[in-house]
Amino acid sequence: MKRLGLASAPLEPYRQAAARGVLALPYCERCAAWQWPPRAVCSRCPEPPGWRLASGNGRIATWSVVARAPRAELQRDAPYIVAFIDLDEGVRMFSRITATDRSEVRAGARVRCVFEAWSDPAVPLPVFVIAEG
Ligand SMILES: [Zn+2]
């Protein structure tokens, strides 16, 4: 079973949003700053960030095809596409592109977040698909 990597952050707001198919990201109200990855304190001040619903939209910054998975449980998915996604909120997320047509996968392509169940079905993980139009 594929394991997820969002270990220790308090994920309940994220989980509730993801269950509705919506991406929530850490957000510091004091700094008016989106954050990623989740962390105990803001990247700019000592406050703990809260969570805010995000657009789930972004662009591929760069991407690669993984032909040989780093762990056995991922090998059945190989080859698969990993990418850095520049979200419209201004943070960069490392994730997967799940696309049937690889010719659409390119730097700058618009993508939107969808969710996949991994090891913990209660905490679906964000992956991205090529956005229409
Ligand atoms: Zn802050």
Question: What is shown here, in short?
Answer:
This protein has 133 residues and is mainly beta.
Question: Can you walk me through this structure?
Answer:
By secondary structure, the chain is mainly beta. The chain has one domain. 6% of the residues lie in helices and 36% in strands. Strand 5 and strand 6 form a beta hairpin. The termini are far apart. The mean pLDDT is 89. The structure holds zinc ion. Zinc ion (ZN) binds next to loops.
Query: What pattern of helices and strands is seen along the backbone?
Result: HEEEEEEEE
Termini distance? 34 Å
What is the general shape?
A: globular
Mean pLDDT: 89
How are strands sequenced across the largest beta sheet?
Answer: 6-5-4-7-8
Query: Can you count the beta strands?
Result: 8
* Beta-strand share of residues: 35-45%
Low-confidence stretches: none
Give the helix tally: 1
Number of domains: 1
Which class best fits the helix and strand makeup? mainly beta
Using only C-alpha atoms, the radius of gyration works out to 15 Å
What ligand molecules are bound, each kind once?
Answer: zinc ion
